[in-house]
Amino acid sequence: MIKSIMFVCHGNICRSPTAEFIMKYLVKKNCPESDIYIASSATSTEEIGNSIYPPAKAELSRRGIPFGGKYAVQLKKSDYDRYDMFLVMDGNNMRNIMRIFGSDPKGKVHKLLEFTDRVGDISDPWYSGRFDIAFDDIYEGCAALLKYIEKENQ
After folding, report:
1. pLDDT per residue over 76-113, tens digit each?
2. Catalytic: which of 14, 79, 90, 124?
3. Which domain holds residue 74?
4. Counted domains in the chain
5. 14 counts as catalytic
């Protein structure tokens, strides 16, 4: 049974908090009785303590997704035992999370887009400036992930 999920990206100021708040929104809207714990974190220390990046906040606002009170935190090795699933945004995040965890013996680590009909990376809007495209990809991944979790939790 999946009761806790952690979204992970490089800095925890763009993609992973966007995923965190999209998933919280989708769970509240579609599964109001659910008690799934949803969080996000970074594989780096660069942005620890910083709020969500303003263009990511603007995209969440524009799409009607509530957010607030989020500050970047770093993923820790001990998180592996505390969460049921870890969703990374790209191949670099996958390499970095494995560096932190050492291994994934329980198969908890996945790319978010694995749950969609397409496989690949969610591009980093910090570099591309395309927060709209990142949002669409993350939303698609979260919607597919929620369907997967609902099946797993039946």
Report:
1. 999 999 999 999 999 999 999 999 999 999 999 999 99
2. 124
3. 4-152
4. 1
5. no
